[in-house]
Specification:
With about 280 residues, this protein is mainly α. It contains twelve helices and two strands; from the N terminus they run H-E-E-H-H-H-H-H-H-H-H-H-H-H. About 65% of the residues lie in helices and about 0% in strands. It has a two-stranded antiparallel sheet. The longest helix has 29 residues.
């Protein structure tokens, strides 16, 4: 299924290099409405998933069934309660680098979007992680998890515990978002289709299996579940609207596979760094 190594597979890593951009396809295709009027809310997309996109939706879900990182042996050990304290802490410290770079990735996607209406929708993702208007964002919440597992916040921020494979995979994802056509970058975010139930199971497992972790540190996952569902809905609507040829559909599926590989490689690197399967 997946090679157990700390790097991004060659064919996925090379996909992070440049490619010709897409011009915007029809702004109103397959029943999706993208308003040019911002109205009272930033979320201006009104998705209505058309039956004609059901084949692509099935293909995207098949990627998650095969490749999402809840299938990784490290994650399976995490939810089984089989990791020791140092291994849990290695997961939190490595994942911090991914969390920190998510808004950087989203800013790269934002810069490539084809219209103000698209940008008004996407920018909420940056606020969700960086915070806005005095509200803490997801990155700050992740540091709360770091404290809850007994990590020193300054040590996490120093990134000294981030494995090279984690850094390489995350940086490749940011490069992908910066250089690939915007619809591929949006498609790569569709791991959020699979994330909410996995986060729910993870919360339950941590509470049951790791009583030494302060449950207050799980706020990141609790807050993220409804946001991930919201973001998946809008991103999927865009993909179905823009994927008007078999070639574009295939590139969207491959983009989602690439993102799954990034998440898988983060766990590969974490497992190797923390002595799991040594």
């Amino acid at each position: 299924m997946h090679a157990f190594d700390g790097g991004v597979p060659h064919e996925r890593a090379t996909a992070a290099l440049g490619a010709p951009g897409f011009s915007r396809a029809s702004a109103r295709r397959r029943g999706h409405r993208l308003s040019d009027d911002p109205g009272p809310h930033a979320q201006t997309l009104a998705p209505t998933i058309a039956t004609s996109g059901s084949g692509l939706v099935a293909r995207l879900h098949a990627v998650g069934e095969e490749r999402y990182h809840d299938k990784h042996p490290f994650h399976q050990r995490l939810v089984a309660g089989a990791l020791n304290r140092d291994q849990v802490r290695a997961w939190v410290a490595n994942r911090y680098y991914y969390q920190k770079q998510i808004p950087v990735k989203d800013a790269a996607v934002l810069s490539n979007l084809p219209s103000a209406a698209h940008r008004r929708v996407w920018i909420s993702r940056i606020f969700d992680h960086d915070g806005s208007g005095g509200e803490r964002g997801g990155t700050v919440s992740w540091l709360g998890l770091a404290r809850a597992v007994g990590l020193d916040e300054d040590e996490v921020l120093s990134e000294r515990a981030v494995a090279p494979g984690t850094r390489f995979a995350v940086d490749a994802y940011v490069t992908f978002a910066r250089t690939r056509p915007w619809i591929e970058s949006v498609a790569s975010s569709l791991t959020e289709l699979f994330g909410p139930p996995v986060m729910e199971r993870r919360i339950a497992a941590i509470i049951e299996k790791y009583p030494w972790i302060d449950p207050a540190g799980l706020a990141y996952f609790e807050d993220r579940i409804p946001l991930a569902r919201r973001d998946a809905d809008s991103a999927l609507a865009w993909v179905l609207e823009e994927a008007t040829t078999p070639e574009i559909e295939q590139r969207c599926v491959e983009a989602l596979r690439f993102k799954c590989d990034v998440l898988w490689c983060i766990l590969d690197a974490t497992a190797l760094a923390s002595g799991v399967f040594a």
